[in-house]
Amino acid sequence: MSYDLSRRRLVGISAAAAGLSLVPFGDKARAQAELVTWQGQAMGAVATLQIHHYKRATAERLIERSVAQVRRLESIFSLYRDDSALSALNRQGMLVAPPAELVALLTECRRYSALTSGGFDPTVQPLWILYRDHFSKTDADPQGPPAPALQAALSLVGFGKVVFNADRISLPHSGMGLTLNGIAQGYATDCVVNFLRQEGIESSLVDMGEPRALGARPDGSPWRIGIADPDEPDRTDVTLDATDQAVATSGAYGFRFDPAGRFNHLFNPQTGACAHLHRSVSVVMPTATAADALSTAFSLMAPADIAQAIRRLGQGQVRLITAAGERLEFRG
Questions:
Q1: What does DSSP assign to residue 297?
Q2: What is the rounded distance in angstroms from the CA atom of residue 140 to the CA atom of residue 27?
Q3: Within a 10 A sphere around the Cβ of 137, how many other Cβ atoms?
Q4: Quick one: which of 98, 145, 261, 331 is 20 to 30 A from 92 by CA?
Q5: How confident is the model over 19-39, as a mean pLDDT?
Q6: What pLDDT band is residue 140 in, cutting at 50, 70 and 90?
Q7: pLDDT of residue 16
Q8: Which H or E element spans position 36?
Q9: Nearest CA to 73 among 87, 89, 85?
């Protein structure tokens, strides 16, 4: 859940399709399918979409439709558009006849909240507001918000308090708020992958903030997805092979409220404290929604609890670098 143009960036399209380019690559794969690549902004993140297709015009149309779909999702999930469904819910405390996608994503939130024993919790928005407002002051106490204010914000956190179904969504306490920044980019990526698969695409790399490979490259080789070095985020630390898999990475380096880096965007919903157990957590899953949510939650969990959760899930892979620099790997 980042609030800067970094690992978990703001959910909000600033450019969408405007001013963005389709970049053709002249070489063709063995299957003679041309690679067409779109690069730009989507869901507030640097986004890319690569499609292998025999007809360039068809690929361009699919990309246009994919970007339009992501723009529509942004109008539902964005915290930075006053007219989004999520903003309306947070403002009013209730949303009648909510978009089906919002209900579907909240259902996914419930699933990953249960899997991580509450580690994944989209109701931490009051904590974000608390820390943002505190460190926006010129004379902000470097020790963080005062304890009474932290306890007041924590009283508004708890996904179990949210009531939702296809007819309405209700936040029962004034001041409660949801953020989907820890899962929405992955969900958008999955929506694009599902659309492309329905249209017959067998080889694509989709990244709407979280990357997911659809199939392999036409020559049968896997797609390559890089994981950032937490000490130098602009540098690739590890590159993973991916075929029909998604990868998401979370780390405190994604956004820090204070110059000392003691307070970051990854909030513990039980204590209100910020994540410091790990320098980087990367999750490989069949879907970007799962990878996105779990990389957020695992940033707050001890290695033993992460291992237990991934075994319970029965699939996927977790790579983490602890605060002490130890590299661990768990498989489901």
A1: H
A2: 55
A3: 8
A4: 145
A5: 57
A6: very high
A7: 29
A8: strand 34-42
A9: 85
Residue with tokens 């990309």: 63
> Phi-psi bin for 148: left (phi > 0), alpha (psi -120 to 50), beta?
alpha
DSSP 102-166: HHHHHHHHHHHHHHTTT-S-TT-HHHHHHHHHHHTSTT--TT-S-HHHHHHHHTT--GGG-EE-S
Residue labelled with tokens 């970051």: 264
Note the pTM of the prediction, 2 decimals: 0.89
Domains with residue ranges and CATH for the chain:
85-170 (1.10.3980.10)
**183, 112 Cβ separation under 8 angstroms:** yes
How is the beta sheet containing 45-53 ordered, strand by strand? 21-28, 34-42, 45-53, 204-207, 211-214, 246-250, 278-285, 317-322, 327-331
Q: 62: which strand partners?
A: none
Residue 288 has a CB neighbour count (10 Å cut-off) of: 31
Structure tokens at 261: 């880096």
Cβ neighbours of 235 (radius 10 Å): 10
Tokens found for residue 316: 């996927």
Edge-to-edge strand order for the sheet containing 94-96? Answer: 94-96, 168-170, 163-164
Q: How far apart are CA 204 and CA 53, in angstroms?
A: 9
